[in-house]
Amino acid sequence: MKSKIKRRKFGNTGLYVSELSFGSMNLRLLDSPEQAYELLDYVLDQGINLIDTAREYCKMNKDGYLMESEYFVGQAIEKRTGLDEPIVIVTKGHGYTLPELDADLGTSLEKLKIRGKGNLKIGKNDIKLVYFLHGINEARWESIKNSGVLDKLKELKSEGVINYIGFSSHYRNVKEIREAADTGIFEVAELPYNVFNRSLGEDGQINFLKYFNDKGIALINMKAFGGNGMVPVMKILRDYVDIDYSVMLNFCLSNPYISTVDAGARYIHEFEADINTALAPRFDDSQLMKLKQEADKVSGLFQNICRECMHCLEKFSCPQEIDFPGILSVYSRYNVNEKLGRSTSEFFEQYRKFELNAENCLECGECSKWCEYGLNIPVMLREAHNILK
Ligand code: SF4
Ligand code: SF4
């Protein structure tokens, strides 16, 4: 199977990866394992050779079955016999201390069905395992630096338990991203970047895409579509800007510093559309400039909104059992519609369905520590209540 999708250099790893890769986070949102296997088979049939997953990408479906991304990826690869190149698997754990690293990595290897040392395999297929520290932020980075995790990762690599070391992070962690890149330990990184938010790229204090490229660190681009919360927002924005999903993806693919763009499709038809975009010509500099100007007409609307990514719930739940991401997503949709002068009546009704709200909040701020976008959640809950109650 030879893919038509172009390969790009994967930093200094010596690997070449398909410039479009598959982000399997949303497998956890599907109704059944069969849907997950069908999609993964399609992805592998297209010659995609990098699949991104994580220990935390799990969710119970409506039948009480645990939809577990790593498990599905392992099973899907294990049953294949005709793969003619190694599949690069990126998985991530919350190993910010040695016991956490030990526990998360052990479970990931088991769920992914990875065997061997050095020349790793799933079933009969060769794989390359990139092991990530998931979502580095200030607190996690402090723990990582002081708990022996970095030395342990180097040891695991030299023993062949993992092949490469990486990390992921988000927009607000500029200081930690720079420090991590400067350690010289990380060979791969995953960062958010898209046409509406270029703050880790050319519009930031540091153009990390170039910075990483110059250091030979392979860069996986996530959130090319802005995250799950962009789906409802994009439906609205189509009336205001001439940018659709294909344009968003091509914008990222057109950046030469990115090794691969991780597209987190949920259905075959979505990934098929991504493949078609990947096969289309890239934008030139003048097209890119026009796109940025077009995006900047509305990018202010994305400040301080909940992206419905649900990363906050991966390791945390509110002690008061408040569905804070649920409330924040309703409030954020209200805000976008209100700023655009559109009808907002449905959001008042949606808000009333939450039994627990800001009145039950202790304002402890613990939830904010887990928000990838640094939202001040207790303050936003209060604002939501004052407006939507
Ligand atoms: S600030 Fe409020 S919503 Fe957040 S964890 Fe504390 S009680 Fe829960
Ligand atoms: S509160 Fe933050 S982490 Fe949680 S879903 Fe919203 S944007 Fe994502």
Distance between the termini: 57 Å
Helix content: 25-40%
The CATH topology assignment of the largest domain is TIM Barrel
> On the 0-100 scale, what is the average pLDDT?
94
* CATH architecture verdict of the largest domain: Alpha-Beta Barrel
Secondary structure class reads: alpha/beta
| Number of domain modules | 2
The helix/strand order is EEEHEEEHEHEEEHHEHEHEHHEHHHHH
Number of helices in the DSSP assignment:
14
CATH superfamily of the largest domain: NADP-dependent oxidoreductase domain
Coarse shape = globular
Please give the CATH class of the largest domain.
Alpha Beta
| Proportion of residues in extended strands | 15-25%
Number of strands: 14
- Rg from Cα: 21 Å
Hetero groups: iron/sulfur cluster
Give an overview of the whole structure:
By secondary structure, this protein is an alpha/beta fold. The chain has 2 domains: 7-299, NADP-dependent oxidoreductase domain (TIM Barrel); 311-388, no CATH class. Helices cover 39% and strands 16% of the residues. It has 14 helices and 14 strands. The strands form 3 sheets. It has an 8-stranded parallel β-barrel, surrounded by 8 helices. β3 (20-23), α1 (33-45) and β4 form a beta-alpha-beta unit. α2 packs across α3 and α9 crosses α10 (268-279). The chain is globular and about 60 Å long. The model has no long low-confidence stretch (mean pLDDT 94). The structure holds iron/sulfur cluster (2 copies).
